[in-house]
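User: I'm putting together notes for a lab meeting next week and I want to include a structural view of one of the chains we've been expressing. I don't have a solved structure, so I'd like a prediction I can at least talk through. The sequence is below, exactly as it appears in our construct file.
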Amino acid sequence: EDAGCFALVLECVPPRLAAAITAELTIPTIGIGAGPACSGQVLVFHDLLGMMQHPHYRQVTPRFCKQFAHVGEVIHQGLANFRREVEERQFPGPAHTPYKLEGEALEATVSKLENSGLTRAAAAAKEWAPNTDA
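Assistant: Thanks for the context. Below is the predicted structure for the 134-residue chain, given as structure tokens.
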């Protein structure tokens, strides 16, 4: 406190010691694995929401962490669905591709690409535009 601290984090401290420190200070103590006597508590949100699914992560999650949810399974499934749709070319479809390049803007872009020697890019723009702008 004399050094200007506005709060103190107590991590992996036995609860009796955390209680003693908290009782002696006028600044708040924030506990992470230090028991309930601290002024407040904090946890890493990945831990408390159960976001990580990798077996290694489960081995290194601190013992003081309580999981209040298990969103990792939902996140994992969402990422798997995203990957599958991308690999199968289902995503992004027309509903998620709202930006258009057509008409004079398309012609000008193709012309600039061709004039810059980027013939493959120009051909791809010409070929692709009708398929995505439908």
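A couple of points you could mention at the meeting. Residues 119 and 129 are 15 Å apart (CA to CA). The longest helix spans residues 71-87.

User: Perfect, that's what I needed.
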